[in-house]
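so my prof wants the structure for this chain in the tokens format not the other one, which i didnt know existed until like an hour ago. anyway here's the sequence
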Amino acid sequence: MKKGLTLSDILVTVLVSVIFAVIYNLWWAVTNTLQPLGLHLDQLMYGMWFSAAVVAYLIIPKMGIALLAEFAAGAGETIMMGRFDIPTIIYALLQGLACEIIFAIFRYKSRALMVAVLAGMAAAIISLPIDWYYGYLNEVATWNLILLISFRIISGAILAGVFPYLLVKALDQTGVTKLFRPASKDDYDAL
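here's what i got, hopefully its the right format
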């Protein structure tokens, strides 16, 4: 496998990002439905916004893919919203970078479930200081803040870790991802 990104790597990453940009825009309806229920239940759905980076990396495990995927998904989300939203771009860049750091720790060689879960959790954690900067986390009571942080990290682990892993594993079984790397039962057992 070539080390650098090829044109097909970039095109597939952008395609994954466009799909997730659509999902991200639709996902607002899900979180907005849960928000009035209180207790930060909407945070249990927050991890979906970190998924593009993990899915793209699991398909194409190369340096820069996660950052490109999350940035492109965030940019696509702002385009679909009909306005250029700087905070969304900042979130996307930092979330993609957090995922890249996790993948770099494993030297871009592991596609294991635990690596995907750690990447999802890292993206969740990096989103918290941004929320603090934009001013609403510092107004939340301590117990409420702990609940919010816990739910967001759990969501990152499940929706941006377990879900992308299972999705890409299903794609591997259909043969769709064979262009980028072989995936057989032996490959998954080796993880």
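also thought this was worth mentioning. Residues 7-182 form a domain with the Arp2/3 complex 21 kDa subunit ARPC3 fold (CATH 1.10.1760).
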